[in-house]
């Protein structure tokens, strides 16, 4: 079977699987559990477009999840059908940030490309945070100064409650010598942000606002 889920959809399915696991471990009421099953099925049908019955059947074991081990096995088995984030080359990344002559590239060896919808890293020397992503197949990037706030808040990208910081991007203004600043709060940990990102529209709104 060919790959048919993007990373965003994969993270969404894992989130639904956690709902099933939580229902089976916290409730004994069959009516409550069945209601959650029905809601999960409805949300999956809205999120994914299945091209054949085999793809639908592939996700049916989600309703048998009753233990953490079963959840991890399910997530592992469906992962092979995920279209991974296309790993950019060092040269491609450098072209996105031509003004950064001493750009420190991220260490990509340990990245699981089937788990991320965007690539991000922080240059601790300059305190800049870089975000690399695809927009209709075209590689793009934004970067700005990242302020560590040491506080919990709602991430503008993934909408989860997490440790956030302010990403502030400066742009040239309309008048010569002027500039404007735009920013918002984003997860400090891009790995957990990617895992919680189940709606790419939120991410697109975030980066479009910064550009």
Which keywords apply here?
alpha+beta, single chain, Fibronectin-binding protein, 211 residues, two-stranded parallel ribbon, EF-G-binding_C, elongated, 2 domains, Monooxygenase
Number of strands: 7
Number of helices: 7
Instruction: Please indicate the count of domains.
Output: 2
Approximate helicity band: 25-40%
Low-confidence stretches: none
Main sheet attributes: strand count, strand direction, barrel closure: 5 strands, antiparallel
Q: Indicate the structural class.
A: alpha+beta
Alpha-carbon distance between the termini? 38 Å
Strand order of the largest sheet: 3-4-5-6-7
The run of helices and strands is: EHHHHEHEEEEEHH
Strand residue content: 25-35%
How would you sum up the global shape?
elongated
- Rg measurement, Å: 20 Å
Indicate the topology.
Layout: E1 5-6, H1 7-26, H2 30-47, H3 53-59, H4 68-79, E2 82-83, H5 90-96, E3 119-123, E4 128-135, E5 138-154, E6 161-172, E7 179-187, H6 190-196, H7 200-210
Parallel strand pairs: 1-2
Antiparallel strand pairs: 3-4, 4-5, 5-6, 6-7
Helix pairs in contact: 1-2, 1-4
Question: Any overview of this molecule?
Answer:
The protein is α+β, with helices and mostly antiparallel strands and 211 residues long. The chain is elongated and about 65 Å long. The chain has 2 domains: 79 residues, Monooxygenase; 121 residues, no CATH class. The strands form 2 sheets. Strands 3-4-5-6-7 form a 5-stranded antiparallel beta sheet, sandwiched between helices. A two-stranded parallel sheet has the order 1-2. It starts with a strand and ends with a helix. The protein has 7 helices and 7 strands; from the N terminus they run E-H-H-H-H-E-H-E-E-E-E-E-H-H.
């Amino acid at each position: 079977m060919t790959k048919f889920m993007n990373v965003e959809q994969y993270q969404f399915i894992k989130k639904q699987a956690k709902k099933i696991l939580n229902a089976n471990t916290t409730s004994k009421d069959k009516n409550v559990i069945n209601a959650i099953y029905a809601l999960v099925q409805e949300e999956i049908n809205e999120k994914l477009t299945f091209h054949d019955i085999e793809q639908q059947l592939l996700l049916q074991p989600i309703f048998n999840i009753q233990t953490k081990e079963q959840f991890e096995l399910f997530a592992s088995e469906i992962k092979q059908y995920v279209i991974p984030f296309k790993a950019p080359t060092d040269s491609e990344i450098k072209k996105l940030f031509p003004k950064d002559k001493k750009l420190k590239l991220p260490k990509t060896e340990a990245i699981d490309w089937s788990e991320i919808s965007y690539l991000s890293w922080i240059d601790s020397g300059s305190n800049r945070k870089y975000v690399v992503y695809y927009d209709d197949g075209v590689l793009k990037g934004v970067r700005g100064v990242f302020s560590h706030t040491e506080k919990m808040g709602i991430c503008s990208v993934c909408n989860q409650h997490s440790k956030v910081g302010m990403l502030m991007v400066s742009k040239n203004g309309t008048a010569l010598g002027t500039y404007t600043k735009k920013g918002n709060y984003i997860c400090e940990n891009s790995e957990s942000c990617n895992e919680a990102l189940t709606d790419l529209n939120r991410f697109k709104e975030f980066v479009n606002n910064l550009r």
